[in-house]
Amino acid sequence: MSLEINDVSLLLGDGDQQVKALDHVSATVQPGELIAVAGPSGAGKSSLLAVCGGLRQPTSGTVSIGGTRISSMSPADLTRVRREKIGFVFQLSNLVPALTSLDQLLMLVHLQGRRPNKADREHARALLDEVGMSHRADRRPNQLSGGERQRVGIARALMTSPEIMLVDEPTSMLDHNRGHAIVELLAARCRDHGVATLMVTHDRGMLDAASRVFNILDGKLSEAV
Amino acid sequence: MFIAIRDLRFAWGRFLLMAVVVALVAFLTTLLSGLASGLVKNNISGLEQLDFTHLAFEYGNKPSYRNSLIERDMWEGWRELQGVEELEPLGHSTFNARLLDNTSLDDVVLWGIEPGSFLEPDVLEGEQLGNVENGVIISELLVERGLKLGDTFKLDRALTELKVIGVVQELNIGHVPIVYTPIRKWQEATYGPPGYDGSEKLPDVLFDYATLIAMKLDSSVTDEAIAEMDMEMGTLTVDRPGAYIASTGYREEIMTVQMIQGFLLVISAVVIGAFFTVWTIQRTQEIGLVKALGASNGYLMRDALGQVVILMLVGAALGVAVALRLGVIFVEGGFPFAMEYSAAAAMAGLLIAAGLIGSALSVGLITRVDPIIALGAQK
Predict the structure, then answer these.
(1) Å from B366 to nearest chain A CA?
(2) B45 vs chain A: nearest CA distance in angstroms?
(3) B293·A92 Cβ contact <8 A
């Protein structure tokens, strides 16, 4: 199950204000692979994630997840794709404030229209254990440090056994050592779970754990050598 | 409801404050409508107690207790109608009553009725009409004004002294207490010459008049049949609600009650709407996040409506319960408070509906949150 981005362009705004957020971008991410995309802010990193995550439709080109083209789906179908096939890791603290770490994961089961059963709970606890957060399972986000929240975020992204994982600036609010630990953890998790992972970051110090590295500038993607 | 319930628990302080506001609105709504409907019931308690289905007034634009005049031919004519179970003429007139030492008892309504007929209420103490010359039965309200069983009093127009032989529960019409007298005595007092003391014989014709006809019709009597009789007899027949509305002030009081309830419902809708709008706007980031994770609009809207219903249920139940408890204390203290449990429950239901309508806007806001805000820098 891979993520395929084929000749994607995204135009934002209109008239004189029109900006080419993505300019004929192509890339393929294989299962178990962590691709890092580095670039300064405004280079098109968020646009790339938005298009891959079905949050924006590309102006031209196609995005496919595991061979299924998502770039022409209806909003309702895209919601379902996000729920079932995509794991998101957002920037710091993008957890639901009212939920404990365990509930952050179980919420995804509810979003699929089921009540979490015993297997779901065990799965969630195992994932929290994998990211070293099983001792914080009943804490809410406001009781967690930045690094801990990011670990819960990674566990949550893996909860639905997604085909691809999209990671947005996972280290933006962390110091270098903690940031590094998070990226290492991400790389290990996506390898173990066989998830095709696309991570964007502006922090060039975080790239060594990635399988491959791309640079993005003015909406153009190029593989770093 | 997974997130909604945990939101309630997490932000319990905010929701508690809001539940208290809902409770206050529910409390006010219940208490004020209880007091108002107590007032309304107080107006027409004499009619409510009366076991009739229809009242026939003299034909006119609208039924009037004050101006109606019915002749014997008319009530005898009505008696011929198929389906009349009971029928009696009733005399209605307002007098100023005084004790013999000229202490005013204020206005009373003198109702002339056939003793022993279905129009005569059961006395709480004393005896029924018929055996005592010039004996009357009085509404309990007059006891509060200083009249007792065995007292005599007079009406300002007639000199005949009336003797209190029985007391009934508080029965009023237009908030004025009713004095029940045999219809012959009523005819003397109403149509006799001023200052008539009962010593001379009055012309027979005076005894052929009353104010209205009280009737018990069985269900076989159609509206068409009634209209036909009205045409023939020159009467205007109304059912029970019509009889209530004809009582002075009743329509206005009902409108007041409904207006109070309407305003409170609108206030409640606005307050709840404002709260949930602010709450939703505060949660925009969280809503965007959950949508990015794959929550549908429907899921989030059900969650939000669930929160509204829980909040309104708790608040309304609390407010109504406190108001009903206070209402019991009011009743014990003699205030006119009337609220049936079904009416209170209906009121609470309306409040919840108002809350849902008020929060419709905030629920609508949920659909407009773009999940893309989950990406990028935190606000």
Answers:
(1) 15
(2) 55
(3) no
Give percent of chain B above pLDDT 90: 53
Give the pLDDT confidence score for residue B133 in this predicted structure.
84
With beta carbons under 8 A apart, name residues in chain B contacting A103. 2, 6
pLDDT at B378: 47
Strand partners, B182: B113
Nearest CB to B376 within list A46, A108, A140: A46
Give me the number of domains chain A comprises.
1
CATH number at residue A11: 3.40.50.300
pLDDT at B361: 87
What are the distances in angstroms from CA A117 to CA A120, A121, A123, A159, B299? Answer: 5, 6, 10, 14, 20
Looking at residue A14, its amino acid is D
Supply A71's token pair.
């770039």
* Domain interval for residue A99: 3-223
CA distance A44 to A221: 9
Q: What's the pLDDT score for residue A92?
A: 67
Its ipTM equals 0.91
Cβ <8 Å between B371 and A55: yes
User: Which of A80, A93, A107 is closest, CB to CB, to B2?
Assistant: A107
Among B10, B293, B375, the residue with its CB nearest the CB of A98 is: B10
Better pLDDT: B43 or A13: B43
A97: pLDDT strictly greater than 50: yes
